[in-house]
Amino acid sequence: MDDARAAWSVPGFQLQHYWIMLAEGMLELYANRGRAAWTLMTERWSALARSQLLRVAIIRAQMVHLRAAAILATATETEDPRERRALVRAAERDARALSKRSSSAS
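The structure corresponding to this sequence follows.
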């Protein structure tokens, strides 16, 4: 993924950046590195949002789902009960957002 990213000459956040973000996030979760996945999502989320790609329903659903999964994985890794509660609340917000979008599409 690093080699592919290094070869891109287009600045900004394009569709290929979305695919890399999705793949890297999933890879971190697969490797049981929830906090790394959460860090990746928080560091790149604003660039993703600025790109307008979140206006595409499937992209928004995939990324919000991945973010919530990263949040919950991080919650299972932390020893701090306050941080865990805050993380679970953040994941619940993402779940509500997904549910709200899903029910409005039917």
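Residues 60 and 99 are 12 Å apart (CA to CA).
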